[in-house]
Write a structure and sequence with these properties.
By secondary structure, this protein is α+β, with helices and mostly antiparallel strands. 63% of the residues lie in helices and 11% in strands. The chain contains 11 helices and 5 strands, in the order ααααααααβαββαββα.
């Protein structure tokens, strides 16, 4: 605020109350001292000036204190008014409370030194114990309001700091909540894609075959596969709903599949890919090495599931190999499928499967790679390779 800012309403009330109180004391003939050079109405000059300075106690506290000091000194040459002294103490208080941080530090120290100096000086001058009372009055007029202003200012600053910390905490909590919601949505999207995409891809392929081939036996076989995948897809959706609801009942199906279900997963893939000339094999080299952490089991299962789905969509006729090994604290998952021209229906792809597999791997601190490779016989292959840390201490680092 500038010195020309509009006075605060409370400052106006203080100025008016101080001026009216001083006029009342003057009218009643009540003064703080006598035998001064300036008698009579001279006492009203510092009174009116100090009351006017009260209007600047917030907007220009340092200037108000400087001029107020001059006026209170002038008051000592008049009959004296208690209202002038009281308003001066308020100016000292306001200069500490509303002034700059430097003023808030210096004024209490300065008034303390003035109090000590006045006490020693007047005692040395008068050589009487009563002179100590002058030091007490000086402390009450200057040092006491200055220290009071410093205490109130510190309290306000601490309250403001606490408010800012509370706002920052609330902001961080809101950011954490937003990140948690985004992460949960991403996890739900991965689960939904991995759980349902396999069945829907098979339904799309076999429904296309049933519509394009005018053969009753082929149509019946395609409809049989479509029905099986529809039922399995509904079961997977039920698992997902159970995960979201977190019912946890004893009759609920397992929400998180494990690698123990790979045999059933490949059996289903063989059924779905029979008409496409695909053969699926599993080489599980994890025997005798103990159980895996649940997040690793789920991630590995979903990666194999998505790789098989992609093979059903895009692979050329041939063998799809799934290989699992475990060594040096790492679980390695490798799914290889033939590339090349493919006859018959295809299911469309969006690329979300590769993104989901990479996200699952990175969340566990593993490595992911997918792309074309050349086999030992020179055949073109597509390989998905994943390495996942499979020890609890490695997952926590």
């Amino acid at each position: 605020m500038t010195p020309f800012s509009r006075p605060h309403r409370d400052d106006v009330l203080i100025a008016v109350a101080g001026l009216l109180g001083g006029l009342l004391l003057w009218a009643l003939g009540l003064h703080t001292q006598g035998g001064r050079p300036l008698g009579g109405a001279w006492v009203l000059l510092p009174l009116a000036g100090t009351a006017g300075l009260e209007l600047l106690r917030r907007t220009a506290p340092r200037a108000a204190l400087t001029l107020g000091t001059c006026l209170v000194v002038l008051d000592q040459f008049t009959l004296g008014s208690l209202a002038t002294v009281v308003m001066f103490t308020d100016l000292v208080y306001a200069a500490v409370l509303y002034g700059t941080p430097a003023s808030a530090r210096r004024i209490p120290v300065t008034t303390g030194l003035i109090t000590v100096g006045a006490t020693i000086g007047f005692y040395a001058w008068f050589q009487k114990p009563e002179a100590l009372l002058i030091g007490v009055v000086t402390a009450l007029v200057s040092f006491a309001p200055a220290t009071t202003g410093a205490l109130v200012r510190n309290h306000r600053e601490e309250a403001e700091s606490a408010r800012l910390r509370a706002e920052q905490t609330a902001l961080l909590a809101e950011m954490d909540r937003g990140q948690a919601v985004v992460a949960e949505r991403a996890r739900m999207a991965r689960e939904l894609h991995d759980m349902v995409a396999n069945h829907l891809s098979a339904i799309a392929i076999h429904s296309t075959a049933a519509l394009s081939l005018d053969d009753a036996a082929t149509t019946r076989q395609a409809l049989t596969v479509i029905r099986e995948n529809s039922v399995d897809g509904l079961a997977e959706m039920r698992r997902l709903i159970g995960l979201l609801r977190d019912t946890g009942g004893p009759d609920e199906p397992a929400v998180a599949p494990t690698l123990a279900g790979l045999d059933a997963l490949l059996a289903q893939a063989r059924t779905n890919g029979a008409d496409s000339g695909l053969v699926f094999t599993l080489d599980d080299g994890r025997a005798g090495r103990g159980s895996l952490p649940a997040p690793v089991e789920l991630a590995a299962y979903r990666i194999v599931q998505e790789s098989l789905t992609n093979a059903l969509k895009h692979a050329a006729p041939g063998t799809v190999e799934v290989v699992l090994t475990r060594a040096d604290g790492l679980l390695t998952v490798r799914v290889t499928s033939p590339r090349g021209d493919r006859t018959g229906p295809r299911a469309p792809g969006s690329g979300a499967g590769l993104i989901g597999m990479r996200e699952r791997t990175e969340l566990l601190g593993g490595t992911f790679a997918a792309g074309p490779v050349t086999g030992a016989d020179g055949a073109e292959l597509w390989r998905v390779g994943v390495q996942l840390p499979c020890e609890e201490r490695m997952l926590s680092t």
